[in-house]
Design goal:
five-stranded antiparallel sheet
Length: about 525
Amino acid sequence: MRYQKLQNICMQHQISVLLIAHHADDQAELFILRLSRNSGVLGLAGMAFTYQTFSSSMHFYDEDSKNDGILLVRPLLHFSKEDMYKVCKVGGQDWVEDPTNQSLLYARNRIRMSLRSLSSYTFKSELQAVISACRKTRAFVDQFCTKLMNQAVTIVHQHGYAIIDLEILNPSKMADLCLTKFMTLVLQFISQRQRPVRGSTSKLLLEYIRTFPCKTSLTAAGCYLCPATRSKGTKILVCCSVDCPFPSKMESTFIHSDAEKTRSMPCELEQIITDGKLYSDHFVPDASDVYFLDSTSESVLTEAKRLNIISDSTYRNILLLQKDEIEYFKARIEDDVECESKDEVENITTCSNEPLRPGQICYFMSRFIVRWSLSKNIPVIPIPEKSYCDWVLEGEGWHHHPWSCTLSHDMVVEVRHMIESDWLYLAKLLNHASLDNVHQQRICTACESEQSSVNRNLYLVYLRFSAERALKLLKSIPVAARRSLPVLVNHQGLLLSIPSIGFKNCPCLTVSCIFKPRVPLGGGHSSFMQFL
């Protein structure tokens, strides 16, 4: 919440780079904290020197703008807190001490106070050396995964799914650390849920991706994985799962109107990131210079001692700090479980979508930007052998009034994901006789009383053409990927539009749908290398 508020302030004032005052002591505390939580090497690397973070709000950009986010920079990571005090004293600068920093209720405070008793230069320098080695490992893994994604991953932007080429990826030859990071980045991009893949899910995912050829499906981390069509198991389809057990499938929906001003970030941010990548890439170590590629959370310290990065004394002291925090953490978990068992657990249900009015923008599942409007006149729509405009021009002109049949009286729609009945409905539209009485009545009321017969025939021709064209496009989309496509319906649930495949229940509807994920593939720019 703190970062989100800072980010919103930066976006409002067009600030693209935010300096954070984290220092070396913060990094040491975080290392002990994550070590006690069984974090892997990538987590033990601590805070990045630079990190690109993205706003979850659509107030600040639309379909045409680029979400570069904010670049967080921590220029003081090599300085201790004591250095900060000295700087303030020499400069005659007052500072504020947060009184909650003395409370032992917080893990960081407990670790901070324990570290004070280990204030020798040797311990501090060796602890920072371990963190530095983890940072180099993470820098190597990040660069390795970035290059591999460019080669082995194809993103189908129009429909929001990915294809992984297993022959290019060659997962059987990859280290667990690299493969886990690679799959995490792909799954986070498709699902737009920035939760790390850990524990049993990570093991299950590694086993799945290393099975060649792929013959089964898997649901993990908000994504559905299965063999790609006609690939004979050499490629894997990754699409967003609408059945994953998360609170609300539409929780990221945000709506704003055209009247609200969007703010673009200064263009120099993109150049800063590009220059930073070019510079830092020269300092990323080779695989032979990376120490912890095959290390787990339990073996990092042992490997560091074997490599003489830390001494026996530092090794024992870190283990003692880790043990103390683990015991305290376990005690807290037991207390939390006991309290939770006394309370009734509330079931989580999917929230209904907010209504979307003409001209408003809906950010659907943090992936698709959807907008719709209504035209008073029918646009020119080509139909085989005869254009729709020709049909209109045969008479005195036809102005279709769809509000009486397809849209609710308050002129709003709802956005949901595609379900099986949607493409069954498209198939029914090809044969008007197969429609039930309710749908036939809605079609009939779409026509003006004075020209009901002519208008009805024109409307049926349009519906059939729109459905036929949509079904052809739908066949080119993998079945698993169809379910996460946005669909517009009225308050009665009647299908109005599937914009990704061009279907519209009414020729006067104008609907746009753009795949624009909040966080880009790879998670944006981050650098764990700091150069002085």
